[in-house]
Amino acid sequence: MTKEHANWSPYDNNGGSCVAIAGANYCVIAADTRMSTGYSILTRDYSKICKLADKAVLASSGFQADVKALQKHLAAKHLIYQHQHNKQMSCPAMAQLLSNTLYYKRFFPYYAFNVLGGLDSEGKGCVFTYDAVGSYERVGYSSQGSGSTLIIPFLDNQLKSPSPLLLPAVDAVTPLSEAEAIDLVKTVFASATERDIYTGDRLEIVVLNADGTRYEYMELRKD
Amino acid sequence: MESNQAKPGLLCNPEASQRTLYPYVTGTSVVALKYKDGILMAADMGGSYGSTLRYKSVERMKPIGKHSLLGASGEISDFQELLRYLDELILYDNMWDDGNSLGPKEVHNYLTRVMYNRRNKFNPLWNSLVLGGVKKGQKYLGMVSMIGVNFEDNHVATGFGNHLARPILRDEWHENLTFEEGVKLLEKCMRVLLYRDRSAVNKLQISKITEEGVTISQPYSLKTFWGFSAFENPTLGAEGSW
Fold first, then answer.
1. Phi/psi at B34 (5° precision)
2. Do A43 and B122 touch (CB under 8 A)?
3. Per the CB < 8 Å rule, is B149 touching A63?
4. Would you give per-residue pLDDT tens digits along chain A (223 residues)?
5. Does domain B32-221 have CATH number 3.60.20.10?
6. Does A10 sit within 8 Å of B153, measured CB to CB?
7. SS3 letters for B140-178?
8. 3-class SS at B61?
9. CA A187, CA A182: separation in Å to the nearest integer?
10. Nearest by CB to B147, which of A5, A43, A65?
């Protein structure tokens, strides 16, 4: 029998880019709001950012249905955590939970590319970056998703973080001020939007600091 | 199959598989939008068996409970199965007899879970679904795909509609469309689809949902004009090698 139909796939790539930058006393998490399939845009206003706890914010791109399932699962786990411990989960704890959750589905993975940003117990910015099956690392800044190949080298160039090979270990937080970091995020997204067809429409930025959480938005190219 | 050798595993043998590998009878685009008082939705009544136009009176929009309206493209039998699930859902919700009823948001979330669950079992319901509704003055319009991708928007369209109708909607849609303007806009979209989507037919229904409930129109046809110069000599610029 000749092949008449394309084989069905349980996965899709809905595109989008995520960025997080950690500073000495803040963390900036950002993602665009475009959702696509193939060459079509499904919607121009879909948030990829999920606030999981007071000091842990998750930005994810990849397959929207898996991302949504992952967010719901983490939110449910966090609710149980609050009932058991009477406090909010810390960002490093949420990072480990996310890793375990992703690895639990190692042989039918969540097609989700995550960046988790937040503040650690000392109020310092922290960023955790993942692959789809749960391996993760604490870094000073990171990008995931369709535009990451354009964004990462730009951030590397601008932020010049110390080598992780240095001994003793040097803190990976960026030297930028909060306002400078937000400006940088806006610039990298405007740049990625120029070349990546899956990034665009609108930028959603979440800023975490000692005062709490703040949301900012910026329009991006819609073509 | 001519050989009587042991068949390979179920997953890699489509012959022995019990899941939907491809659809049989399918419906084409559904287009829907928010307007001043609620949601308007349009779908034609064709049921295609591959490229054969097999059925011509398929109802692809149905009311769900008191506050929701569901439109479907894709496999018609899967849609009808889904309607049975929803009937049960609404019935069991009604049996609480607490004066409370599922709104469009809840129904849309339920559909999302059903579609995603079936894709997790590698046994999808082969549909793109559009759910619209109004409850307590809140308008709701969302979509769910075969593999569970879901979102809300002010206007949505499935399949070809996403390519041909949504650009028109992005141009002309605004929050305060009246009923007449909304219907006119939907008809414009359906006419473009009729001209350019080969599985679309000129027999459609438009349905409306407001706080007062659902009304689905009788089937009707659109006025067409086939004299456009672009429609004349369609093969002129496409010379074949033969």
1. -85, 145
2. no
3. yes
4. 566 667 899 999 999 999 999 999 999 999 999 999 999 999 999 999 999 999 999 999 999 999 999 999 999 999 999 999 999 999 999 999 999 999 999 999 999 999 999 999 999 999 999 999 999 999 999 999 999 999 999 999 999 888 888 888 888 889 999 999 999 999 999 999 999 999 999 999 999 999 999 999 999 999 9
5. yes
6. no
7. EEEEECCCCCEEECCEEECCHHHHHCHHHHHHHCCCCCC
8. strand
9. 9
10. A65
- Domain borders along chain A are 17-219
Q: What is the model's pTM?
A: 0.91
A48: which chain B residues are within 8 Å (Cβ-Cβ)? none
Q: Quick check: A12 and B120 CB within 8 A?
A: no
Task: Tell me the chain A residues in contact with residue B151 when contact means C-beta distances shorter than 8 Å.
Answer: 35, 42-43, 46, 64
> Residue B185 carries which side chain, given as an amino acid letter?
L
The reply to whether B20 belongs to the active site is yes
Q: Is the peptide bond before B23 cis (omega within 30 degrees of 0)?
A: no
Q: Does A61 touch chain B (CB under 8 A)?
A: no
Residue A125, φ and ψ in degrees, nearest 5? -65, 140
Nearest CA in chain A to B22: A5
- Taking the Cβ of residue A177 and every Cβ of chain B, the question of whether any pair is shorter than 8 Å is answered with no
> Is the complex ipTM more than 0.85?
yes
Contacts of B209 (CB under 8 A, 6+ apart): B38, B39, B41, B63, B67, B68, B69, B132, B133, B134, B215
Of B21, B116, B152, the CB nearest to A8: B21
CATH of domain A17-219: 3.60.20.10
Query: Which sequence spans correspond to the domains of chain B?
Result: 32-221
**Which chain A residues touch B22 with a CB distance below 8 Å?**
4-5, 8
CA separation for the pair A201, A199 (Å, rounded): 7
Q: Taking CB atoms and an 8 Å cutoff, what residues of chain B touch A8?
A: 20-22, 124
Token pair belonging to B115? 């579609």
Is residue A217 within 8 angstroms of chain B, CB to CB?
no
Give Cα A168 distance to the centre of its chain. 28
Strand order in the sheet with A141-145: A141-145, A17-22, A26-32, A202-209, A212-219
Task: Using DSSP, state whether B75 is helix, strand or coil.
Answer: strand
Q: How many CB pairs below 8 Å do chains A and B form together? A: 51
How remote is the C-alpha of B119 from its chain's centroid?
A: 18
Give the closest residue to A63 by CA, choosing from B149, B44, B24: B149
